[in-house]
């Protein structure tokens, strides 16, 4: 195989892989809006449930002063969604929950 053919092959196959990846259906995003039970994880994929587990997420904190609602990564509930969320994983997060990546909230002055 000549160098020119090798370059054509590599760029051609890479281009084909790129085009095929663009044709794949988009991943379904998990939406917190409309959820009324913040402990309900039925809409999460096995991958997301495993991610929560690997981050040490617990619905009730074992460390009273380290709660999700005073963590820098916590996404508090809004008018559109009843449950909080987290920047590290998908799904509802209870305010009194905890994970091993807890970081103190930095209050802006």
Automatic annotation (TrEMBL):
InterPro entries: High_potential_FeS_prot (IPR000170), HIPIP_sf (IPR036369)
Domain High potential iron-sulfur proteins family profile: 39-107
Keywords, in A-Z order: 4Fe-4S, Electron transport, Iron, Iron-sulfur, Metal-binding, Transport
Family according to the record: Belongs to the high-potential iron-sulfur protein (HiPIP) family.
Quaternary data: Homodimer.
UniProt function note: Specific class of high-redox-potential 4Fe-4S ferredoxins. Functions in anaerobic electron transport in most purple and in some other photosynthetic bacteria and in at least one genus (Paracoccus) of halophilic, denitrifying bacteria.
Protein's name in the database: High-potential iron-sulfur protein
């Amino acid at each position: 195989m000549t160098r020119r053919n090798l370059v054509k092959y590599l760029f051609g196959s890479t281009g084909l892989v790129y085009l095929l990846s663009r044709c794949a259906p988009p991943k379904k995003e998990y939406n917190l809006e409309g959820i009324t039970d913040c402990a309900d994880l039925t809409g999460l994929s096995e991958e997301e449930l495993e991610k929560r587990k690997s981050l040490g997420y617990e619905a009730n904190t074992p460390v009273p002063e380290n709660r999700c609602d005073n963590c820098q990564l916590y996404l508090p509930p809004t008018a559109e969604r009843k449950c909080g969320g987290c920047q590290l994983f998908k799904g509802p997060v209870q305010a009194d929950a905890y994970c091993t990546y807890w970081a103190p909230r930095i209050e802006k002055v």
